[in-house]
């Protein structure tokens, strides 16, 4: 089973990734009949294990933002604990070392980069080149609207955009730039 291919197919039919930050948001995603891609942001270690299990049992594809899990260190042991006890589809991180460890354990990886300026773009491209994550999430998502398509494709990795996206029209414009999906905590977009 090629998880990356399955993830891309899921995004082709439902390009908005549910970025879940609360129990209320989790309950809403769990109520959906059709499976979604889900990013879990800011849960405790106990909640992550329970949430990933609940999401997976309903056919969703949960990713855990390792940098935001309360009570779980983003090191070899912490990621091993997550793999053994939660079994997410993948992880999200801003840290090169976390991505490398997760890849070594067979998880899909999303490298998150903040596009503040040209230097941040250059550093993001360099990190993608060295760690080769499965996906690159650029924040804020609305930044891709003003970027040349060639600059986006030069990043060398399938792109997800997230942050400050709160309308269907923004989602459509972002996707028209060649972006694979849009992560959003705006539940009206889910």
From TrEMBL:
InterPro entries: Aldolase_TIM, GlpP. Gene3D superfamilies: Aldolase class I. GO terms for biological process: glycerol metabolic process; regulation of DNA-templated transcription. This is Glycerol-3-phosphate responsive antiterminator (MRNA-binding). The lineage of its organism: Bacteria, Thermotogati, Synergistota, Synergistia, Synergistales.
